[in-house]
């Protein structure tokens, strides 16, 4: 079970508790769980975004790809991520695949091996 599904199950059981007479909602618990989710997303423990990978390989190749991207003056943010044993160059954090595909179509002529994916899946 992946982290997102685990989070959903924990969220469901943590938010609602059953009284003999009625159902009630524990808002303090909901707030603490939402804060935990925000923190996990901020630290990339929950990766609920699409990105475009331009390169995977050596550190030198990743740096060269990033510099080349800056020279072409594209507007999306670019990061170098390390996932053993390769350095990866990622462009953008897109909420939907459609947003990622629009940028992908603009840059694929310069980066024919680029791909759109959702990290952590």
What does this structure look like?
The chain has 121 residues and is an alpha+beta fold. It folds into two domains: 3-42, no CATH class; 50-117, Alpha-Beta Plaits (2-Layer Sandwich), CATH 3.30.70. 44% of the residues lie in helices and 26% in strands. It has helices at 3-15, 27-42, 59-71, 97-107, and strands at residues 16-18, 23-25, 50-57, 78-83, 86-94, 115-117. The strands form two sheets. A four-stranded antiparallel β-sheet has the order 4-5-3-6, with helices on one face. Strand 1 (16-18) and strand 2 form a beta hairpin. Helix 1 (3-15) packs antiparallel against helix 2 (27-42). The model has no long low-confidence stretch (mean pLDDT 84).
Identify the CATH architecture of the largest domain.
2-Layer Sandwich
Shape: elongated
Distance N terminus to C terminus?
A: 11 Å
> What fraction strand?
25-35%
Tally of helical runs = 4
**What's the SSE pattern?**
HEEHEHEEHE
Describe the biggest sheet? 4 strands, antiparallel
How many β-strand stretches? Answer: 6
- Global structural class: alpha+beta
CATH C-level of the largest domain: Alpha Beta
> Fraction of residues in helices?
40-55%
Summarize model confidence as the mean pLDDT: 84
Strand order of the largest sheet: 4-5-3-6
Radius of gyration: 19 Å
Unreliable stretches: none
Q: Which topology of the largest domain does CATH recognise?
A: Alpha-Beta Plaits
């Amino acid at each position: 079970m992946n982290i997102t599904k685990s989070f959903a199950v924990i969220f469901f059981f943590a938010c609602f508790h059953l009284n003999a007479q009625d159902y009630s909602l524990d808002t303090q618990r909901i707030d603490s769980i939402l804060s935990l989710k925000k923190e996990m997303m901020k630290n990339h423990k929950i990766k609920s975004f699409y990105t475009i990978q331009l390169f995977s390989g050596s550190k030198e190749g990743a740096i060269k790809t990033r510099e080349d991207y800056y020279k072409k003056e594209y507007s999306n943010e670019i990061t170098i991520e390390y996932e053993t044993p390769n350095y990866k160059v990622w462009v953008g954090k897109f909420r939907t695949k459609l947003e990622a595909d629009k940028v992908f179509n603009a840059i694929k002529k310069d980066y024919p091996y680029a791909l759109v994916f959702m990290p952590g899946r």
